[in-house]
Amino acid sequence: MGIHTELCDLLEIKHPVVLAGMGMGISGADLTAAVSEAGGLGLLGCSRLNPDQIRDLINKTRELTDKPFGVDILAPPLGAPGDRDELSEQIPKEYWDFVEKVKRDLNIPDFDSPEYALTEEFMRRQMEVVVAEKVPVFATGLGTPAWVLEEIRAHGIKYISLVGKVKHALRLKENRPDAIVAQGTEAGGHTGKIGSLPLIPMVVDAISPIPVVAAGGISDGRGLAAALALGAGGVWMGTAFLATREAFHDTVRLGWMTPGDRAFYQETILKAAEDDAVVSRVKTGKTCRVYRGGLLKLWAESGLEPLPYQLQTVIMSDLETALMKADKCEYVLHVGGQVAGMIKELKSAGDLVREVVDQAAGIIKDRLPACVS
Ligand SMILES: Cc1cc2nc3c(=O)[nH]c(=O)nc-3n(C[C@H](O)[C@H](O)[C@H](O)COP(=O)(O)O)c2cc1C
Q1: What domains are defined for the chain?
Q2: Ligand 1: residues whose CB is within 6 Å?
Q3: Which of 12, 114, 227, 250 would give a disulfide with 232, using CB separation of 3.0 to 4.6 Å?
């Protein structure tokens, strides 16, 4: 049994299941290729990766599959200021004092996270690779890089973007995306306030006939069947793919995560209850859903307000890298969604895609028709 929607035709895939692009190579080449090979659409999470690293992941994915896949990059805020050194200078002293206190109290040495920039100039160089490599799909969250859309369209690259509100979907519609992801608050990562159940049909109504992909709190065939019932053409899953054997390979290889932290992160997901993922601005300055880690408590005790997006990210990424290297993973703020409460075993990504589709098809074909009187 299978499920076929207009989204499958648009993206040239067999099943309407999309792997969310999860930055720093969390959804790297192995995971992306496994999802695409299984008939879904894999997306390489390329936020913060430099152009050479992105090209490398694209080439590796192409060695593993000849099926369509995409690249996801978070767009920096418009007029984003400077590189990491410039940003560091804008951070008030009391915030650095907090970082130093945590390091002292927990006895952890200094450690810089790998080099990255959150500037438009950096994203322009990232996008040169996406265009030159003619990756079939480009996806982004946190805003639309309007300056690149004409060029990617000219190269036949499809554009997908994420929204958490109807008004953002209407604004995005003006940029003529090929599909829009409606992401409910349940989601892991940066998230808004509206639940998937009301958000998805509202976005469907607002932007029809543009296809909608449902995200936030989906991990199995019940979620896919529900998303289709709400009018979406498919699902976009992040947290569920974190609990797969192919996740995080490139994140570890590129030095963003240690093998120990990867194991701790996946264990956290498998053990999580439905209320273990909370929304906080501590990790990035924007509302971001993370599992409760020790840094949340230490930050609350400091009395500091989180800084704007890029500044908070600079502080936290170095501190979290230092904590991981010192094997203090319980303090790190691991990103993930509410749906972890129903994820109980590590799977292969291909099996996950097939199980989601089989279960949804069974519900639609057998269970739901039996309810109609
Ligand atoms: C670990 C993690 C990292 C993420 N990184 C990104 C990212 O780099 N770019 C992006 O557009 N969305 C990112 N997201 C959000 C996902 O694209 C997706 O919308 C979300 O995971 C869907 O909800 P779910 O986690 O309940 O499946 C991330 C999510 C997670 C869990």
Answers
A1: 6-79+117-245+349-367 (3.20.20.70), 86-115+258-331 (no CATH)
A2: 20-23, 26, 45, 47, 72, 74, 141, 162, 183, 186-189, 215-218, 236-240, 242, 335-337, 339
A3: 227
